[in-house]
Design a protein that fits this description.
mainly alpha
């Protein structure tokens, strides 16, 4: 397995291919937008991938872990928002980037993480209308847009409403939900970006 140079650590897979051939522009990589758009995505992705935890004084380890998980979702979702336009997608159409099996596993993992659904019940009562429908469907055990679930969590947290101990929310459960959500978002970004880098290398006969 090739060793990733330190300068590319925490960037998307095969970022070196992009970085070393940016003069070609975005079209040969089957990416939309401008070179600067891709680089901004890379910076957001790197921040999200590098993030580990935040340190607090006088806060319990469980609560601190909950805040760390919430901040990670915020960073990862920010990276996703900058990535989707690069592949001609949006949070509405991004469902096509997942297989039905992957989507179902995601829903199952979330339900198993919070069998009492206290977290999403809390989120549902405070999230914006655009994503509330999908939270309602999830709570009813029906198919929904998986990307709107972490979007709802991110939105309610960013507006200062959701905390690791809000209205009976279990901080350990919340941290698990955030971890599952972040992993799904990284899965999509990693796979789609790497696929385009490999296609570029194959097209131009690069090693």
């Amino acid at each position: 397995m090739p060793i990733t140079p330190l300068k590319y650590a925490s960037y998307p897979p095969l970022w070196a291919v992009w970085d070393q051939h940016t003069r070609a522009g975005t079209a040969p990589f089957h990416l939309c937008g401008r070179v600067g758009d891709v680089n901004r995505f890379g910076a957001r992705y790197r921040a999200a991938r590098s993030f580990r935890e935040v340190n607090f004084e006088s806060i319990s380890p469980a609560t601190a872990a909950g805040y760390s998980a919430l901040l990670r979702v915020l960073l990862v979702y920010s990276a996703l928002e900058s990535f989707l336009p690069l592949v001609g997608a949006s949070t509405t159409t991004a469902k096509r980037l997942l297989t039905s099996a992957e989507t179902q596993v995601f829903f199952t993992d979330l339900h198993n993480a919070d069998t009492a659904v206290t977290t999403f019940n809390f989120v549902q009562s405070h999230c914006k209308r655009q994503v509330r429908r999908d939270v309602d469907l999830f709570l009813a055990g029906k198919p929904c847009n998986p990307f709107n679930l972490p979007a709802a969590v991110r939105h309610v947290f960013a507006h200062g409403i959701l905390t690791p101990n809000a209205a009976g929310v279990d901080p350990a459960v919340l941290a698990n939900i955030c971890s599952i959500s972040s992993d799904l978002l990284f899965l999509v970004m990693d796979r789609e970006f790497e696929k385009r880098m490999k296609r570029f290398k194959l097209t131009f006969g690069l090693p």
